[in-house]
Amino acid sequence: MKSYLFVLRKPAHSGSAVQEMLDIILTAAAFDQPVSLLLLDDGVFQLKSGQQPERLAMKDTSAIFKALEIYDVRNIYVEQESLQERGLKPTDLCLPVIPLARNHIAKLMKQSDVIFPG
């Protein structure tokens, strides 16, 4: 069985690419594949609590992120420096995350069989 790492770098509500990536994540997880997420750069905003995308006529993806637990996707990594650079803390996010220092990202990627950049 291969392990999958999905890397999200784009901010919340930045178009259909995020929705498509979430669909791929859920599909892989539905087939009992080991799936992990890594949020980098503006991707950390994907999990920011209190978003109101409906005000911008955008789809609310937070419900999909919250469904990850149902699919046993529990390894959600967030680069610490990306959070800090954007004035966020792990407690500002809508899901429990695993903070990871920038210098540990390469090691995480080497542990994964397949990486989906986003």
Structure explained in plain terms:
It is a single chain. The chain is built from four helices and five strands. The chain is of the alpha/beta class and 118 residues long. The chain has a single domain (4-116), classed as 3-Layer(aba) Sandwich (Hypothetical Protein Ychn, Chain: A). It has a five-stranded parallel β-sheet. Strand 2, helix 2 and strand 3 (75-79) form a beta-alpha-beta unit. The two termini are 22 Å apart. The relative contact order is 0.26.
Primary descriptors:
Hypothetical Protein Ychn, Chain: A, five-stranded parallel β-sheet, 118 residues, alpha/beta, 5 strands, globular
- Please give the alpha-carbon distance between the first and last residues: 22 Å
Query: Structural class of the secondary structure composition?
Result: alpha/beta
Helix content: 25-40%
Sheet with the most strands, sense and barrel status: 5 strands, parallel
| Whole-number tally of structural domains | 1
| Low-confidence runs of at least 5 consecutive residues | none
State which percent range the strand residues make up. 15-25%
Task: Please render the helix and strand layout as text.
Blueprint (H helix, E strand, L loop, with lengths): L3 E5 L7 H15 L4 E5 L22 H6 L7 E5 H6 L12 E3 L4 H6 L3 E3 L2
Parallel strand pairs: 1-2, 1-5, 2-3, 3-4
